[in-house]
Amino acid sequence: xxxxxxxxxxxxxxxxxxxxxxxxxxxxxxxxxxxxxxxxxxxxxxxxxxxxxxxxxxxxxxxxxxxxxxxxxxxxxxxxxxxxxxxxxxxxxxxxxxxxxxxxxxxxxxxxxxxxxxxxxxxxxxxxxxxxxxxxxxxxxxxxxxxxxxxxxxxxxxxxxxxxxxxxxxxxxxxxxxxxxxxxxxxxxxxxxxxxxxxxxxxxxxxxxxxxxxxxxxxxxxxxxxxxxxxxxxxxxxxx
Length: 240
Ligand SMILES: [Mg+2]
Hints:
This is Putative hydrolase of the HAD superfamily. The protein is built from 9 helices and 6 strands.
């Protein structure tokens, strides 16, 4: 096949995200709790005692259920949930929004402390010389804030488009911005339902980074790790 474009999922594809999310989730919430306790104008009682982390998670889930189009816009869900809990804790609207903003700044700073797999920089550098590259994420990492962002002339935040994967629109938008076409493109990602299947349905090739070795349907290629991608790319190029 003629391969022109490669699109990449980010979380758990280019780096291991589990540790990052746990640190970020606990870190920014603990920061908010401590900052409120330090602020003289804060209401009495500890915020995180009244609303432990589980209450924040539950509020985000309730907001996502109440606002289906926003279900993939995690930044919006987090901000709204924080602002609501802060208001219920006794803050007026303006300080509640202010502290929700500050906590989100902290969240985003921690969220971007990702460590790409060591092979990723060289891999993107080499692929970027030959192919047009894009990132497509449902998460809230802004790839332009990371050093490896320079390899992606196109970066799609699918949740903020209100069309999270498996919606086909973020894939089609990425390919149209790259001036390519599904039949000449490969998508790389770790989620079966959100990366491999929707890419395949559009006629893209799909590289699925997954743990098991069950037989793959035609057009979906299993990789144990993103470092195996160059070999797959060479193989695809060699197919008629
Ligand atoms: Mg992923």
